[in-house]
Amino acid sequence: MKKLTLKDSEYEIKKGKILRVRKMTAIETFFEIALPGGESLDHEPGQFVEVSLFGVGEAPISVTSSPTKRGSFELAVRNVGKVTGALHKLKEGDEVGIRGPFGKGFPVRIFEGNDLLCVAGGLGIVPLRSLINYVIDNRRDFGKVEILLGCKTPKDMLFNEEVDEWNKRLDVKLNCTVDKADPDWKGNVGLITSLIPGINLKPERTFAVVVGPPIMYKFVIKELLKKEIPERHILVSLERHMKCGLGKCGHCQINNFYCCQDGPVFSYDKIKNIPEAL
Ligand SMILES: Cc1cc2nc3c(=O)[nH]c(=O)nc-3n(C[C@H](O)[C@H](O)[C@H](O)COP(=O)(O)OP(=O)(O)OC[C@H]3O[C@@H](n4cnc5c(N)ncnc54)[C@H](O)[C@@H]3O)c2cc1C
User: Fold this and answer.
1) Ligand 1: nearest atom to the Cα of 252
2) pLDDT in tens, 17-41
3) Would you say 102 and 11 are in contact if contact means Cβ atoms under 8 Å apart?
4) What is the mean predicted confidence (pLDDT) over 67-77?
5) What's the gap in Å between 80 CA and the centre of ligand 1?
6) In principle, which of 106, 147, 165, 215 could form an S-S bond with 174, CB 3.0–4.6 Å?
């Protein structure tokens, strides 16, 4: 039986005020939210919050802004059901409930001094954007940075303007791919795995962070292992049906792990032998 060490604050729902809403695609919307009195969320890149709407429910959503952004934080939400659908109807000035931040994020201290490869498929860019902007804001603490982004079509690409800014930087290498191009697309066409043979990083000093749809993981990891990146240097963020966020309800259990508390970020060596993890 797992020992519970819950702090009262983990149950506390804070009122978050929506400062900015922006439609990103047909199904994804961006929200900037402030806590009362401009209180800082104090999250780590890769952590999530439980967002609630009174009378509707609660959903885990990754924080997409970097902890270096103070005074407010940002979410990007795909409309898939009850809570996310209701969130999409909100306007600037409306309020949402916020619990958290929860979970284990990306181990940024361990990344320091090393090279970083970020691999994001589809909505995976949402948690990775927090890490990428944190690294950019503390650029001297990290070695080389390579970013691989993939999505189905160019119109599904999120954070386009920011991705262009990352691409202009001399200290970041970025490559984008789509499964199906349109006539204006100038990047690569093909699965995200097709970009991995082209990376130029020293495996022993590289940490690879992979976030995307479940199907992506085993193929991307196979390519990373071919590049001799050590198993413990491959970090994945897993998504599971989740309710409490506190390791209490058991909805997100993966064998001996709770995705909400032991994850959502796991190193590959820890989960590779758990059949239902990847
Ligand atoms: C750690 C974590 C971080 C997340 N970050 C984000 C994020 O940044 N942005 C974002 O848009 N979404 C994110 N999600 C997914 C989001 O939590 C779910 O889409 C949301 O809970 C759905 O709630 P709903 O009430 O809108 O949908 P429901 O009405 O509950 O369900 C709609 C449909 O989606 C399915 N579904 C619901 N939740 C999940 C799930 N977790 N996995 C697979 N299928 C599911 C249901 O079975 C149903 O078919 C994250 C999930 C986790 C666990």
Assistant:
1) 53
2) 999 999 999 999 999 999 999 999 9
3) no
4) 97
5) 7
6) 147
Q: 89 CB less than 6 Å from ligand 1?
A: no
Same domain, 165 and 220: yes
Among the atoms of ligand 1, which is closest to the Cα of residue 64? 8
User: Are 209 and 119 within 8 A, CB to CB?
Assistant: yes
Q: Residue 80, SS3?
A: coil
117 within ligand 1 shell (Cβ under 6 A) = no
- Examine the pLDDT at 109 and tell me if it is beyond 80: yes
End position of a domain, from candidates 69, 87, 102: 102
Cβ neighbour number for residue 163 with a 10 Å cutoff: 17
Element (H, E) at 176: strand 173-178
Ligand 1 contact via 134 beta carbon (within 6 Å): no
Q: Candidates 30, 44, 61: which one to mutate for ligand 1, based on the most atoms within 8 Å of Cβ?
A: 61
- pLDDT for 8: 62
Tell me the pLDDT tens digit for each residue of 247-257.
Answer: 888 888 888 88
- 97 with 156, same domain? no
pLDDT at 1: 43
Distance CA 26, CA 268 (A): 33
The model's pTM:
0.93
Nearest CA to ligand 1 atom 38: 241
Decide: 65 in ligand 1 pocket, CB within 6 A. Answer: no
| The pLDDT value given to residue 240 | 85
Question: How many whole angstroms from its chain centre is CA 97?
Answer: 20
Q: What is the pLDDT of residue 6?
A: 55
Of the three residues 75, 102, 129, the one that is the final residue of a domain is 102
